[in-house]
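Input for the complex:
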Amino acid sequence: MKKIGFLGPVATFTDIAVRGLFPEDRAIPQATIPACLDSLANDEIDLAVVPIENALEGSVNITLDYLVHEALYPIVGEMTIPIRQHLLIHHSQKLEDIQTVYSHSHAIAQCHRFLHSTLKAVELVNMTSTAAAAKYVSDHPDEKVAAIANALAAEEYQLTIAHQDIHDYSHNHTRFIVVAKQDCHLKTAQKSKGYKTTVMVSLPDDRAGALHQVLSAFSWRNLNLSKIESRPMKTGLGNYFFIIDIDQKIDDVLIPGVKAELEALGCKVQILGSYPSYQLGKIEELTHK
Amino acid sequence: MKKIGFLGPVATFTDIAVRGLFPEDRAIPQATIPACLDSLANDEIDLAVVPIENALEGSVNITLDYLVHEALYPIVGEMTIPIRQHLLIHHSQKLEDIQTVYSHSHAIAQCHRFLHSTLKAVELVNMTSTAAAAKYVSDHPDEKVAAIANALAAEEYQLTIAHQDIHDYSHNHTRFIVVAKQDCHLKTAQKSKGYKTTVMVSLPDDRAGALHQVLSAFSWRNLNLSKIESRPMKTGLGNYFFIIDIDQKIDDVLIPGVKAELEALGCKVQILGSYPSYQLGKIEELTHK
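Predicted:
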């Protein structure tokens, strides 16, 4: 049984990713993303699961900053889960009586249309996480309050789902990465949907067309890119690096060829990982050991 | 005097951007990013200031989603401010007595190294914002507590800066955009450092090299790109659009030429705005009217 550190508290979206991938292992909530990756560095956990894209809870930038600036631990897997928000109430309360809705500010923002059309007169109160909001509702059965949170929080805090799927955009997903101290082959409860390779490229200068030249190296090899993002280098404004996701496993010829060519052109190239990609369809029925 | 809606509460980083740009106008805090842009839609405010990159408080994705999916209001300005975090205490307390530190979870993560080296034994408690943490410390002068927040919060809640600049990365910046209902020329207290044009491009298909082809149109015209980011279309996994920042004002020939060419190739192209760029060096000495 492995020890899996994740961005807590219990019943966050990161927790859903952990339960989906590692239902048999021991999940250990961590307070922040750096704390989670530090636990990996100190061998207190075997794997770290942290958000990397489109996150509700943690800042994705903090994840990238740690991997790029602190310790280049390899990404050994990724998990994509749908963002589904529900309105949760205590079973002793009725939906029409609700006067206050608690949640994380981003979750409130994600359910803006529903709140404006269906629950117009309610007061909205920010909490530190969707899980904390669900806990509050569970702890205060006599108050006319509801929480916006995920289905795992409903289960964890024994709340009723009064309204399902109240988020504004139905195709919104969050992506998490699994980080290990050394590259390894994951044993997960899910079947992988394919492979990805994540590469960090920093350009030698800012001149127009440098990125275009970098992408040529991928393009003429028919390497499909599923993501590209520029990020400031933190050495001052104007210096950027790029995070590029390639839609395949690292091979012996093509990707090493790109790396060698870009390095010859003066770029710095680092492979952050080549890993299986998992997707979760349903977020119910997930349990820790 | 204009009415400026911003992502509140008072003394957030967004508030700093507002005070830097519009010290003479009336700043009106809003609970969420969609609420802020809705206020603009309903003519309750004249301008909206919301985070667009590297944000501590709001989700940048929520800003982009609103502009792309709800209402294509033009970006009329941008403001970049440095992320500086300080340790704030009540003047009646001493730093060596502090037992608990309150802040937003992202701010706690941003000061991870300082907290691990200098304040090892303290308890860390998440709050809904850095401003809320500062308010808590101000309201509880007898408790041995500190807050991580910005200099504006220190001023607003009359707290002492016990440790200045405790954030891990010194070149971290946050970018905010000013959104209006119609394109307009901003009157601000800052001198602009240049112009940017933001373009949204969606590709006709996912084939390898499509992005490379798109960038060619910019590259051979010597249009320098300061940012490129891929974002899912929300019509399902695998459909992406790109947000591209060009480092100049829109002209009559080059940028319209790119747009026409890309549209002829089957891309959808939308100019989100062409606007002056402001940078704040110091974040002290900023006041609302």
